[in-house]
């Protein structure tokens, strides 16, 4: 079977880690199986959708390393949905209903009082043509419901295994609003059929929708895709990520200097049997991740784990990968990168760390160390230097002054770098050279 998957965000806000999870899991599945990846903007909610949010989603995907093979927008495809609507009406599967929301609320409340499930009673199916004409003359416009078969719908889930959804316990779903616009369900199924989607990979909160959607696939004569429902990513408090609640967005992480690969790893491997650890690329993850590794339990995001992973990716980043980003900051030099990368938590910090090599540096000199540093300056070895120079220099100082440990090394570090922490001085000394060291020592 050729693989075609889709990720279908609603452009009603910025995407967050919870959205990135299915976006990337679909990408990994497509890459693993040599398939196609469709980005579908589910923008049928015209009041809340915007092109700005859609453009932002595309930018976030590109930053994460996902390159769709096809981009479609539901707002451009109404003719397909109209044709499907007419087909379902002709088949008697889509029927008009005239109840107001208040009337439906009263029906549900009454059902609960009687100990019955609060599902729609299909009263609209009993309306005659004269009844419908009278209601429309009163100014009522119908919403349209899909008549379910009311049966157990079985499917083999890629992640959860055999599943059954009994549509007999559900209300016939509304597919078309009273104003004639489409809700999510019908356009989604129509697009999946039209685009040849072979696998639908999404969050487990959609399992209960699958029975309804399979019945619509069958009613339209379309091929039913294979479904896979993964566990949902939650925040550190166990709450679901939400645009409405203002969860930290992918663009926020980008602005804060996180590596896209770190975000991708945390968004997808959390809640699997694979460790949260560095990978070379998205393709390397795709080769290793199988859906059998996805846990059936929760997947809780740990910000500390992301910070640790981000640093680990930087600490092993090859110079050829870092070079274009260094160049954009006016920096270059493999030796400098290999020395300084161990100190980075986020890449933008390289600008500050690079000052240890390029300057300017404000040496910090304690009064009690001035004589010691004057002697250090006098004993600074002649060039050429290599990584043994530091040892020769400090051994000479130790012999001359009796200083050792922190009393020996910290004044040198503070004078040469202006800070308590930083890279190994034996390597930094070589990069600085004798003239710079003489200038920084008092």
From TrEMBL:
Catalyzes the attachment of glutamate to tRNA(Glu) in a two-step reaction: glutamate is first activated by ATP to form Glu-AMP and then transferred to the acceptor end of tRNA(Glu). Residues 337-441 form the Aminoacyl-tRNA synthetase class I anticodon-binding domain. One of its GO terms (molecular function) is tRNA binding. InterPro entries: aa-tRNA-synth_I_cd-bd (IPR045462), aa-tRNA-synth_I_codon-bd_sub2 (IPR020751), aa-tRNA-synth_I_CS (IPR001412), aa_tRNA-synth_I_cd-bd_sf (IPR008925), Glu-tRNA-ligase_bac/mito (IPR004527), Glu/Gln-tRNA-synth (IPR000924), Glu/Gln-tRNA-synth_Ib_cat-dom (IPR020058), GluQ/Sye (IPR049940). The gene is gltX. Belongs to the class-I aminoacyl-tRNA synthetase family. Glutamate--tRNA ligase type 1 subfamily. This is Glutamate--tRNA ligase. The keyword Cell cycle does not apply. ATP binds at residue 243.
């Amino acid at each position: 079977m050729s693989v075609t998957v889709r990720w279908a965000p609603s452009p009603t806000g910025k995407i967050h880690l919870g959205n990135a999870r299915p976006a990337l899991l679909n990408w990994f599945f497509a890459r693993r199986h040599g398939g196609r990846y469709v980005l579908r903007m589910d923008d049928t909610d015209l009041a809340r959708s915007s092109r700005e949010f859609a453009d932002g989603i595309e930018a976030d995907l590109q930053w994460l390393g996902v390159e769709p093979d096809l981009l479609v927008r539901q707002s451009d495809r109404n003719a397909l949905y109209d044709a499907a609507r007419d087909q379902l009406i002709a088949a008697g599967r889509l029927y008009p209903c005239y109840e107001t929301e208040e009337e439906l609320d009263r029906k549900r409340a009454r059902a609960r009082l009687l100990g019955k499930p609060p599902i729609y009673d299909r009263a609209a199916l009993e309306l005659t043509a004269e009844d419908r004409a009278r209601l429309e003359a009163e100014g009522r416009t119908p919403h349209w419901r899909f008549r379910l078969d009311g049966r157990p719908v079985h499917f083999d889930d890629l992640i959860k295994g055999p599943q059954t959804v009994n549509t007999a316990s559900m209300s016939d779903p509304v597919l078309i609003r009273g104003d004639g616009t489409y809700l999510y369900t019908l356009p989604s199924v129509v697009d999946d059929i039209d685009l040849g989607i072979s696998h639908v990979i999404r969050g487990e909160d959609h399992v209960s929708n699958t029975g309804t959607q399979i019945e619509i696939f069958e009613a339209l004569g379309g091929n039913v895709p294979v479904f896979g429902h993964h566990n949902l990513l939650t925040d550190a408090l166990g709450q679901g990520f939400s645009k409405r609640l203002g969860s930290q967005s992918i663009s926020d992480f980008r602005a804060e200097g996180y590596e896209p690969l770190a975000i991708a790893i945390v968004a997808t491997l959390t809640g699997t049997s694979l460790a949260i650890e560095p990978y070379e690329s998205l393709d390397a993850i795709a080769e290793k991740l199988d859906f059998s590794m996805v846990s059936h339990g929760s997947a809780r995001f740990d910000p500390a784990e992301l910070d640790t992973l981000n640093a680990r990716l930087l600490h092993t980043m090859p110079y050829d990968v870092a070079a274009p980003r260094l160049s954009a900051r006016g920096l270059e030099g493999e030796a400098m990168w290999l020395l300084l990368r161990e100190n980075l938590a986020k890449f933008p910090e390289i600008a500050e760390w690079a000052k240890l090599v390029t300057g300017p540096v404000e040496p910090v000199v304690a009064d009690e160390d001035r004589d010691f540093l004057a002697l250090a300056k006098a004993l600074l070895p002649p060039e050429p230097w290599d990584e043994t120079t530091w040892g020769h220099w400090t051994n000479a100082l130790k012999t001359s002054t009796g200083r050792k440990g922190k009393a020996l090394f910290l004044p040198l570090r503070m004078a040469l770098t202006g800070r308590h922490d930083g890279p190994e001085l034996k390597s930094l000394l070589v990069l600085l050279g004798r003239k710079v060291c003489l200038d920084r020592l008092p």
